[in-house]
């Protein structure tokens, strides 16, 4: 494996919004444009590697949950938590359309490759196809049962793939307006889906830590990885279609297929990566935390994209000799005819016109704006301006790993000039150095709190070891009860994270033990606790609400009451879920990423409110 050395990537960080960042996307055509959406209801446009925002787009009245560029990067669309979409023309710096129709937060978007159409997916589980010229929805696709997290049009524009929290990937025929097939091999929420640029192949990445490949001629799975270290958040085919890149927590992997192969693993400190793009044979990746956005660059010239596999990551399989030249295939390739969609024309309403007038595009960096968004008639845009690769600094010497050469790094820290300054604080008070600290004093500062931390970690290790010993006997219920009895939420979270990775472990008995703990997790001040609680509650509702509802509404049995014990468990769960529904309802009124998650839970718990 490549050594986890920070020299594997170019890094830069910006303060992107005045409040938390809620979404971002890279322009795939150039790899040089970045759009960020925030809880401040703004969409900001950036040039990768430059610290200043080019343009700030306003108009949304709720947090921006997803963004997407069109193929030419001349337009950008953003979906909000309220369910509205806004489309801007970046060259003209103005709003083009406001589209209304979703009943819940919009969480996925994609532009049709050859037409004036775009698709949107929502927490309400619906997919809508919009004609932006007619300013209306031309078709609605129904079939998912939970939030639609990712949408992707096929290169020929005839199909639409959708990935959902219901663990399925669906393929839709845009012309016929119906579902072609459904892929159900994932065991947890599917976060991302992408078509191969040439062949009839589809790739998907999931929270079950797998990447799967599907043959779109036979509609069967032809490959699956089992070696991801975390949730798969982004995937991207190489432009020539020779391999697939997968981004999970702090790791970039390179896959081949037929047979399954992992060519390389690059350890990158990007945390929970959000998007990937390729430019000049460099991988550009972005991630965010609170109101900060970081981007990273990996030199793909130093990453293996073919050849021998990395041992130990997948089961060793003999690799057959190639039967054809590189780039040729027996699988069918996409044709790219011009496609069209039919629908009823919808005239803009006065309410829509009011929405458009309230939206604006403020150019904050005229020089970069003029350089990037030239008018279509400008000669400099045909042919497009060539971009140079990001410059690498002098290489540091370190022990080499699988790669023959180290990948260089540039580290820059940037602070937005518009960032608010705290009142009553003087930065000089924190930055000034009055004296040089001696070695002993420095060590004392480092050791401060160390003993306390050691005691805490030792206690946690001891508790986890106790739970593990019970778990080894195969009794999940007793293991969970043991964790709950320790009155330490961190232990409960650790156990729940393991159970959530394999939803089949959930039983009705576990629900009665853990729902009270989940109520505490949902109200915790720690983000990871809240997230684990939401995932657990979602799995419980998905797997057991139909059983609980049917059991409680069933007529009383005659004679021996065989189902009495199960009915008592269902009653206990119903009572606890009823209490949880009030917590979820209150938290759903909050803004931000958790507010969106709680709104989704509120929809799942809707029967409890009646």
In short:
The chain is of the alpha+beta class and 610 residues long.
Structure description:
The model is unreliable at 1-7, 311-329, 337-348, 376-384 and 393-419 (pLDDT under 50). The chain folds into 2 domains: 8-303 and 360-370, YVTN repeat-like/Quinoprotein amine dehydrogenase (Methylamine Dehydrogenase, Chain H, 7 Propeller), CATH 2.130.10; 444-608. The protein has a 5-stranded mixed beta sheet, with no helix packed on it. Strands 2-3-4-5-29 form a 5-stranded antiparallel beta sheet. It is α+β, with helices and mostly antiparallel strands. The termini are far apart. A hairpin with a 4-residue loop joins strand 7 (75-80) and strand 8. The chain has 11 helices and 30 strands. Residues 448-605 form the Katanin p80 subunit C-terminal domain. Keywords: Cell cycle, Cell division, Cytoplasm, Cytoskeleton, Microtubule, Mitosis, Repeat, WD repeat. One of its GO terms (biological process) is cell division.
């Amino acid at each position: 494996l490549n050594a986890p050395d920070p020299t594997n990537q170019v890094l830069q960080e910006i303060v992107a919004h005045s409040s938390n960042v809620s979404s971002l996307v890279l322009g795939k055509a150039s790899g040089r444009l970045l759009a960020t959406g925030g809880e401040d209801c703004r969409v900001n446009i950036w040039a990768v590697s430059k610290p200043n925002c080019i343009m700030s787009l306003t108009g949304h009245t709720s947090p921006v949950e997803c963004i997407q560029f069109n193929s030419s990067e001349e337009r950008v669309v953003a979906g909000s938590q309220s369910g509205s979409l806004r489309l801007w023309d970046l060259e003209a710096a103005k709003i083009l359309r406001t589209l209304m129709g979703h009943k819940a937060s919009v969480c996925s978007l994609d532009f049709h490759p050859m037409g004036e159409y775009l698709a949107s997916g929502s927490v309400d589980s619906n997919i809508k196809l919009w004609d932006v010229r007619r300013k209306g929805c031309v078709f609605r696709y129904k079939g998912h049962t939970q939030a639609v997290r990712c949408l992707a049009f096929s290169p020929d524009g005839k199909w639409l793939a959708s990935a959902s929290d219901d663990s399925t990937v669906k393929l839709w025929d845009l012309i016929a307006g119906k579902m072609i097939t459904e892929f159900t091999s994932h065991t947890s929420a599917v976060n991302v889906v992408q078509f191969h640029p040439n062949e009839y192949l589809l790739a998907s990445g999931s929270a079950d830590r797998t990447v799967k490949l599907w043959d779109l001629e036979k509609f069967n799975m032809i490959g699956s990885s089992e070696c991801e270290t975390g949730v798969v958040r982004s995937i991207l085919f190489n432009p020539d279609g020779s391999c697939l890149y997968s981004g999970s927590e702090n790791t970039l992997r390179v896959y081949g297929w037929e047979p399954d192969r992992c060519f390389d693993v690059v350890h990158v400190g990007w945390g929970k990566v959000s998007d990937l793009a390729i430019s000049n044979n460099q991988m550009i990746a972005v991630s965010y935390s609170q109101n900060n956005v970081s981007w990273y660059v990996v030199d793909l010239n130093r990453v293996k994209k073919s050849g021998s596999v990395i041992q130990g990551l997948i089961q060793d399989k003999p690799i057959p000799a190639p039967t054809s030249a590189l780039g040729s295939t027996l699988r069918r390739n996409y044709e790219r005819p011009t496609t069209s969609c039919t629908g009823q024309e919808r005239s803009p309403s006065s309410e829509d016109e009011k929405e458009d007038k309230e939206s604006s595009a403020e150019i904050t960096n005229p020089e970069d704006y003029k350089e990037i968004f030239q008018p279509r008639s400008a000669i400099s845009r045909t042919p497009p301006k060539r971009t140079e690769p990001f410059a690498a600094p002098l290489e540091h010497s370190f022990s080499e790993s699988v790669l023959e050469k180290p990948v260089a790094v540039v580290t820059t820290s940037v602070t937005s000039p518009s960032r608010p300054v705290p009142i009553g604080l003087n930065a000089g008070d924190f930055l000034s150095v009055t004296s040089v600290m001696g070695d002993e004093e420095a060590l004392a500062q480092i050791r401060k709190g160390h003993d306390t931390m050691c005691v805490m970690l030792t206690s946690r290790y001891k508790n986890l070891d106790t739970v593990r010993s019970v778990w080894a006997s195969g009794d999940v219920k007793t293991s969970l009860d043991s964790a709950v009895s320790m009155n330490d939420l961190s232990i409960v979270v650790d156990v729940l994270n393991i159970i959530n990775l394999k939803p089949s472990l959930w039983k009705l008995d576990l629900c009665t033990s853990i729902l009270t703990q989940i109520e505490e997790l949902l109200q915790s001040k720690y983000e990871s606790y809240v997230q684990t609680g939401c995932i657990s509650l979602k799995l419980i509702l998905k797997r057991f609400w139909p059983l609980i509802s049917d059991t409680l509404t069933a007529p009383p049995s005659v004679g021996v009451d065989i189902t009495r014990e199960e009915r008592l468990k269902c009653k206990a769960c119903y009572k606890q879920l009823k209490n949880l529904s009030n917590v979820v309802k209150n938290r759903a009124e909050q803004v931000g990423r958790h507010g969106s998650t709680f709104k989704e839970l509120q929809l799942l718990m809707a029967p409890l409110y009646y």
